[in-house]
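Cross-posting from the chemistry board since nobody answered there.

I work mostly on the small-molecule side, so proteins are not my area. We synthesized 2-acetamido-2-deoxy-beta-D-glucopyranose and want a rough idea of how it might sit in this target. Sequence and SMILES are below. Is it possible to get a predicted 3D structure of the two together?
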Amino acid sequence: MDPKHLFLSLFNFFLLSGQQTVLGSSHRHHLPRTHHVFDFKPTKLFVFGDSYADTGNIGKPVASSWKQPYGITFPGKPAGRFSDGRVLTDYLARFVGVKSPIPYRWRKLGIKHLRYGINFAYGGTGVFDTLIAEPNMTTQINFFQQLIKDQVYTPQDLQFSVGLVSVAGNDYSTYIARNGSAEGWQPFITQVVNQLALNLKRIQGLGVKNLIVSGLQPLGCLPQSTFTSSFQQCNGTQNELVNFHNLLLQQAVVKLNNETKDSKIVILDLYGAFMTVFKGKGGSKFGNPLKPCCIGISTAYSCGSIDGKGEKKYSVCEKPESSFFWDTVHPTQEGWRAVYSVLHANLEQI
Ligand SMILES: *[C@@H]1O[C@H](CO)[C@@H](O)[C@H](O)[C@H]1NC(C)=O
Ligand SMILES: *[C@@H]1O[C@H](CO)[C@@H](O)[C@H](O)[C@H]1NC(C)=O
Ligand SMILES: *[C@@H]1O[C@H](CO)[C@@H](O)[C@H](O)[C@H]1NC(C)=O
Ligand SMILES: *[C@@H]1O[C@H](CO)[C@@H](O)[C@H](O)[C@H]1NC(C)=O
């Protein structure tokens, strides 16, 4: 590496390491010719998974993401994101260096709108069928395969793409809902990770060789698990199972990466990032980070619920930016921003 190049790399490193600069627009001019994680400059992002990544695929009347007060921070009204504002996909798109790709549901808008890729993620889904069932991740990849068959994307497009795959645990909540408990989870975790690994391999086989896959976040710390302790304590049993999932995922990814020369899968350590934010340096900036901003007035209601007379059956905190969690499962925009800044620092070291 010549000295000038080295200087530029260091310059970029410091610039990109500052939490605020990362998310500002100013860093764009200084992006290196190749990406700092992938050895090319990505032009498209293809997204698969669930509500942590969905930016509007679920239709309007069905999902809470289209109800008040979702979207109050960004874009200012409900618009299909499961948060008060931006979600994981939006931050990862910035990291990759493209605009957040449009939801698959809007693919008919025309080719121009597909130039940053497509988001196939659909809230509530898993690698297997869940309570929402369709489109599971297999079906999402089928949609992608069809678009490639239809020559919406060229092999060259795919070569310069990155895939984002989110698995936030709907397979497990479905298992608990159907079975009444988490008993027998261990073999099921193996099945989930095996299926996920097959999916990753299939996406790579379609031409997107470089993937970012999320590890599982601490499910036992989601408000849906901590409300029994008034949002004071994470459920350790659930977090142990999450750690097992993440261990298997890590092993599967090492194996996949070892099998191929020209491809790369990077794991997003959501577990570590959530925990780091919860602990905070010298106390979390989120007060009690386990307490969500938007809560149903009783367990019969959730964020966004209204009764027959149109009356709100939930309460919203005054400052969503001061809460880590938005509802019982999903982080706020500020929560995602904090998670992303931890992830970003780690990704820099790959
Ligand atoms: C995904 O959904 C399709 C269509 O319902 C179904 O045939 C398939 O078995 C599902 N895949 C998995 C892995 O559950
Ligand atoms: C319920 O648990 C058993 C094992 O304990 C497992 O074989 C079965 O698939 C589970 N059912 C569902 C719906 O996940
Ligand atoms: C923790 O989660 C497990 C598995 O879902 C559940 O059986 C247990 O009751 C939970 N513990 C507490 C203290 O809520
Ligand atoms: C990587 O693959 C080689 C053979 O291609 C094998 O000998 C080695 O054990 C593998 N390493 C891991 C960590 O799987």
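Reply from a structural biologist on the board:
Welcome over. Reading the output above for you: The chain has one domain: 3-287+341-347. The first helix runs from residue 3 to 17. Happy to explain the token format if needed.
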